[in-house]
């Protein structure tokens, strides 16, 4: 089973030099939502996953980790 990995999102964001506010603007959401996703408090919606994959030019599957 796979689970969204917020730490990967945080690393991607930092590697691109984006603040949480900047990423939130690109995803059309609040910076607090980005924070919640990065800290594993919430799972992103399908539309947010698609947006993240487009912003970082990666497959959506790269945002998930195996979870047992």
Describe the protein.
- The protein contains four helices and two strands; from the N terminus they run βααααβ.
- It is mainly alpha-helical and 68 residues long.
- It has one domain: 434 Repressor (Amino-terminal Domain).
- A two-stranded antiparallel sheet has the order 1-2.
- Helix 2 packs across helix 3.
- The radius of gyration is 11 Å and the shape is globular.
- The mean pLDDT is 96.
Biggest sheet record: 2 strands, antiparallel
Q: What is the straight-line distance between the termini?
A: 6 Å
Spatial arrangement of strands, main beta sheet: 1-2
The helicity comes to 55-70%
Shape: globular
Radius of gyration: 11 Å
Question: What is the beta-strand fraction?
Answer: 5-15%
CATH architecture: Orthogonal Bundle
* Domain module tally: 1
Might you state the CATH topology name?
Answer: 434 Repressor (Amino-terminal Domain)
Provide mean pLDDT, rounded: 96
- The secondary structure category is mainly alpha
Any low-confidence stretches, pLDDT <50, length ≥5?
none
Order of helices and strands: EHHHHE
Number of helices: 4
> What is the total tally of β strands?
2
| CATH homologous superfamily title | lambda repressor-like DNA-binding domains
- CATH class equals Mainly Alpha
């Amino acid at each position: 089973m796979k689970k969204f990995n917020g730490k990967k999102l945080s690393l991607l964001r930092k590697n691109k030099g984006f603040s949480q506010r900047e990423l939130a603007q690109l995803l059309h959401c609040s910076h607090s939502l980005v924070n919640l996703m990065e800290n594993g408090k919430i799972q992103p919606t399908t539309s947010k996953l698609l947006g993240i994959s487009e912003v970082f030019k990666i497959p959506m599957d790269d945002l998930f980790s195996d979870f047992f």
